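To whoever picks this up:

The parser on our side crashed when reading a file containing two proteins. I've narrowed it down to the boundary between the first structure block and the second sequence. Both blocks are reproduced below exactly, byte for byte. First block:
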Amino acid sequence: MKFTDGYWRKRAGVTVLHPAHLQDTAPGADTLTAWAATRPITHRGDTLNSALITVELAAPAPDVIRVTVSHFQGERSKSPNFAISGEPGDVSVDARSITSGALTARLSDGDNWALDFLDADGRRLTGSGWKGMGIVAGPDGDHIHEQLDLGVGHVVYGMGERFGPLVKNGQTIDIWQEDGGTSSEQAYKNVPFYFTNAGYGVLVDHPGKVSFEVASEMVTRTQFSVAGQSLSYLVIYGPTPADIIRRYTALTGRPALPPAWSFGLWLTTSFTTDYDEETVNKFVGGMADRDLPLSVFHFDCFWMREFNWCDFEWDPRVFPDPPGMLKRLADRGLRTCLWINPYIAQRSPLFAEGRDNGYLVLRPNGDVFQWDLWQAGMALVDFTNPSAREWYAGKLRGLVEMGVDAFKSDFGERVPTDVVWHDGSDPERMHNYYTQLYNEVVFEVLRDLKGEGEAVLFARSATVGGQQFPVHWGGDNSSTYESMAESLRGGLSLMSSGFGFWSHDIGGFEGMPDPAVFKRWVAFGLLSSHSRLHGSSSYRVPWLFDEEAVDVLRSFTHLKYRLMPYIYGAAREAHLTGLPVMRPMPVAFPDDPAVTHLDRQYMLGPDLLVAPVFTAGGEVSYYVPAGRWTRYLPAPGTAPAIEGPRWVTETHGFATAPLLVRPGTVLAVGARQDRPDYDYRDGVTLHLFEPAEGRTAVVVPGPTGADTVFTVSRSGDDVVVGRMGDALPWKVQTGATVTELAADEDSCTLTLG
């Protein structure tokens, strides 16, 4: 939201009060409160008919400082609120500054108002200077804004899933959940958190609408504003983007670790297509006959009868024996997923049950909120009501007990503000926050019934903390290269916002993709953390495109399954540290200015560079950071290695895509390509790529508590590979030299050259 008309003037009807004079401070044990007058105070008369702005500084966690700016403090307390946890750690406070770990917030003295944020060396990271804080009155009501400086070359990332450029500078972004597809400025997953390449991140602690002007209204500042009389935000010190993400997810929640089977290939019925059990069997059998190893089969909306969403009852006209069908699919080694949403259509038998028991969201006059958008006469489940949560969860439990393994928790964005919530929540704040309650209920059902580490969602909407309930997918895209690219931008933006796992509809949701689009998207999809074939009005089984599509899907599915020891290790890292499996280049290479704006490539885990191909002819350009990188899937006619830093332009057929291995990598490659969940240690091959001098350790995940650790030690041309763990068959490969090792051997020695 913009409040100014150029640099000098405010917009018509808008007045803004800014801190001008630091009047007084009150240091506490771990807090600092300051009062700022909005004009210079030269004598007692200046204190009359004047506003006083209160600025409270606190340290909720090491290297984190919270700032709360307020005008009138008589507003009633509103909910919901983000769940932010942490321990203060070492905090020091004096009359004008507070220090938390390596981060200091310092107030200027006297009439030159400023709030600066400094690192441990005294370097200024950012700050709120003259006219940075503002108390706004205008035709749109009262607001508070804050502006934090952006230095030369400083850029901003994050703010949830956004489909425009990865760098947010120059953009106006409203944090407001919308069902807008992947081709607009709207987003399903809105997160008022960003980080910069200047060593800090910012979380605006407001679950309602937050309006950002990122170097747009004031081109040297990031402005954020909220309605009301107070604004709270947290500055999070890095210094690296990875450090900021780690600290942010420590505050707001780390992702759960999805089960290994969820990393396999998902196939769906698609949305409005005709299907029944015979269709499902035909698809599943067709995949098996073509050696296309499925992990999950998903039933989209029409597993329930039309106009009944949701009643959680299988449509008996097309699925007469759901328990038997689920068992038959399980006997084939498949997991199953069902589509759900948090809405109850009027025709559903659950509507009257929810209405009569007070489980549905109400209008201010006491009527149930209803509309015909999406489902005829639909209402919303009121998840602020504990009884409604239990009621909804009970319907899901019955399905899990029947044999269902996962839920696609769709929607959660179309939440009205002219309603009343059971617990008195503020409607404006609940609009964005509703998804958190919804996905939490669904995830907890799966975790409670299936056990820790076995719960997984396929969720569309999210806000701060939503990363705790993986996986999220990108929403309704189109079957074009442009939409494939915008999907990737949305995913990279989301993973810059604390989310560890992400997926997208391979081939695009809307429309029937051209075979070339489908095949290019297959490579991208299987080199993502989670991989799902899904469409709207057309199926996504590959033989409907051409036989080459079958071969491409088989090849990349096999590749992903062989890479599972590495991918699952990256998943564990996401669970433990918050670092995403798919990493934006600025997160992976913060010291390389060439990666600042890159949004057509990413790192899959710490060591694999992926550059999806967005052209039918296979032309692709991508950037290679410093070092000697190895092509894992070389295109014909290309050299096996690339020396960076440099840009590369090359052409790929459908069987390959740019997949490069970072120098110094010890890549664990599994022995199986028929499924994603197996003992990764059994028959594992260690591939050594430009092994580094010194000692490198790599963990190959095994069953709980039974990992195997390999060490690679290099001195000149001599390389020694050792193993600490269970004695299982394994081998080492480097270049053209392969050394086979028997099960009882613990080490081997290689000579490079």
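<<boundary where parser fails>>
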Amino acid sequence: MPQAADAPEMISGGHLVAKALKAEGIDVIFTLCGGHIIDIYDGCVDEGIEVIDVRHEQVAAHAADGYARITGKPGCAVVTAGPGTTDAVTGVANAFRAESPMLLIGGQGALSQHKMGSLQDLPHVDMMTSITKFAATVPGTERVADIVSMAFRECYNGAPGPSFLEIPRDVLDASVPVAKARIPEAGRYRASTRQAGDPEAIERLADLLVHSEKPCVLLGSQVWTCRATDDAIDFVRALNVPAYMNGSGRGTLPPGDPHHFQLSRRYAFTEADLIIIVGTPFDFRMGYGKRLSKSASVVQIDLDYRTVGKNRDIDLGIVGDAGLILSAAAQAASGRVDSGAARRKEWLEELRAVEIKAYENRLSRQLSGAQPIDPYRLVHEINEFLTEDTIYIGDGGDIVTFSGQVVQPKSPGHWMDPGPLGTLGVGVAFAMAAKYARPDKEVLCLFGDGAFSLTGWDFETMVRFDLPFIGVIGNNSSMNQIRYGQAAKYGAARGRVGNTLGDVRYDEFARMLGGYGEEVRDPADIRPALERARESGKPALINVWVDPEVYAPGTMNQTMYK
């Protein structure tokens, strides 16, 4: 029936969700449909928000994480109640450890059926609280947009991270007068989170830099999170400081830059007199801080106060935005009579000699013509293939560990890996998000065959939404990183328990789903296959058979096996 002329304008909960997403700048949601959440879809249609429907909720959550990393805006995934939400837990947990801002919206049974055993009813908020920065139930339709904006705000409290909301079905489906609903306006419900750091601490850092003979800096993921690339580059060039990069910080400096170092990090951390760690916790990737020289002065810069000084004592900790702090420190040090930059020439030459020796020692492996293919040859060919516009994604164990030594993105924000949770299965989802958000970029993902198997069916989603990318599978028919540890711990006779996969033709899988597929057994064929995948204009999988008896040094050095 038509509304009476004097009837109030009404709006549903799902449409309020969409309005709140639009206010945050969200232009796409990643989802798998369910009866609890369909009114959100209806709202998204009206607000011009694209709905990308995937085949597994884990992929939806990973894609929201990936979207946040690429765009700098929070990502959003929408899943149904119960198993829909539990399927997304891994993606949320990965975003939590990787400090990636995203919102997961989960359905829930009607409030009118609370505790009655409704379909797919679970205590979602209790489950999500420990892996999010904010988790809540929306109690009424009038509050839907308000609490969505609240969840986004909490994503940026300190270091970024995910939030979770469950919205009961009757709350979502109900309509309320627009005048009674709080609908926050874009740009008016969040403040800037950029903090410049303690000015006294900045001056202390400047003093350390001025007097340092052998400084080095590690530029971690928060350099990209803070979009601090230009400030980081100005810092290392003004003060002549050698820079190492990890996580999303890779690509801050391009390969070949005189301040870009990669293979001499262990040496630098042993010999330096000042080590500045930017946006990287002292977790397992850093040996919990034990890999840093005990005689060096150690400075840690981080968005999160709780991270600074955790697991290792430091000489100086500064909480705040990486760009603002590096810029202020460079300005303070450069203003001194002698910033120390000129006398570091020999230190950079010393590190460059270590770099060259390490590269030359490995070069024969990178150019190996062996069959099965040496993984070093595969990642070498990928590195040579990358352009300045190629976003590189690593999804796997042993094969991606090889790539971390060799592959160097050519531009900032062009490296994606799971982060410290070490989650396998992020690759297709990250490629989906990256290609959607940046259609002008080429996207290349290196998979282990075990990693691709976890979420590979969403290759079909890439085909369905016409999101071309180049997938490369380093196929050794094994979960080889685990296999190495088992053989080392229990002996070769028990090295094949629970870790051996079938010899799967992933190239045929790609063709079956409408993409491009090609098999490679000869290392000389890797580059031509990559070129043909690029030219195909389709989602592609190049199935490269690599030697299962070869392990990455990082795999062999894992402490969990010792």
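After patching the parser it read the second block fine. The longest strand covers residues 102-108. The first helix runs from residue 13 to 23.
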